[in-house]
């Protein structure tokens, strides 16, 4: 069998295959038997009529047409074995060049080609922001707020600091540029713009809000105006938004709050000394404060390292040359869409319902995900190539150590069952966790200029850190199927 190959862009190979004459004739013999089974010839049992009679009855062209699919499939399988071509997707029949001799051309996707640049020269600064005392106190206040309880008032009284109030609230930005033709900029209780709503009478629509009367939780003027109000009382409160307000469009502008107080509840805030026990911390408030600081510092370190890794990977992809078959990207886009389908299913929504609501087809939804699928494919391929270049590998001892680390998070009585699952069903996932940690550590060292020589050993990062999703690209060889 004669095979001519040609390398094409996007990791495609064109194969022009000429079938041997003997193979061609054997295929015609088999086609004749199939035709005689489908259309029995008088005087012969089904499948027993001689080929010359079948060919004379139906014509040689019909015989060749019947044989074509098997000819292509069988010749294609032999061709990729003969040429030792690894394929990553189904072939596409381009054309039948001639019938006698039987010559056809197919295009097949092959593994992608990845050419790394000088990935060891990439440098990314690691910026860790300091944890201030204000940040520690804010976290402690957040923890205490989680344990606040609400209590109805025993007797009516005016609103006071520490209360939670329910109000009917509407706001207007008193600025000609901000409101036109009766439109009002609707604000939340903190003065943050939500939407501009047109009203028939030019007044903004009120919305029911629940506000905590604590300094710093609300705009100062609104907070001060609410203090002392009684249930059923209405008031207009004018405030000037600070120049550092989160909503840039209303900085320095005058805002009128129209408030009707609907209800008051007393917020019972636990004493600071009670906080450690409330959060199941065995220690004093000062010891809890120290732990909070340490946790915030660790979280900031992780954030900074993740930012470093993201920036490094972005530069790595930019300087890498890729030749990727479209089928690989399309398959990932399809997988991403059906990951979304599983998320929808948690809320009782089907993918078909979502697509119908959006007015798009399944193929259009896949097409929308192609850019993200291409980005993820490039990241995975580039990191896989780094793994290969660096010779990163995982040993059984490292897998065992990772399993022990995972088991430490479970109660002792559950560990045997979890160990069985990890060592059988999830062993490859555990190996990937270890490999990802090694890769994270290597990238971090390279980016900071600490790794200048090629090595197969990378320092292990802290086990609690999130991992970079980078696994060696799976080599797949799909069973050839042809369309004629």
TrEMBL record:
Isomerase in keyword set: yes
GO BP, sorted A to Z: 'de novo' cotranslational protein folding; cell division; protein transport; protein unfolding
UniProt key word Transmembrane helix: no
Protein name, UniProt field: Trigger factor
InterPro entries: PPIase_dom_sf, Trig_fac, Trigger_fac_C, Trigger_fac_C_sf, Trigger_fac_ribosome-bd_bac, Trigger_fac_ribosome-bd_sf, Trigger_fact/SurA_dom_sf
Listed GO CC annotations: cytoplasm
Function: Involved in protein export. Acts as a chaperone by maintaining the newly synthesized protein in an open conformation. Functions as a peptidyl-prolyl cis-trans isomerase.
Comp. bias regions, Polar residues: 474-484
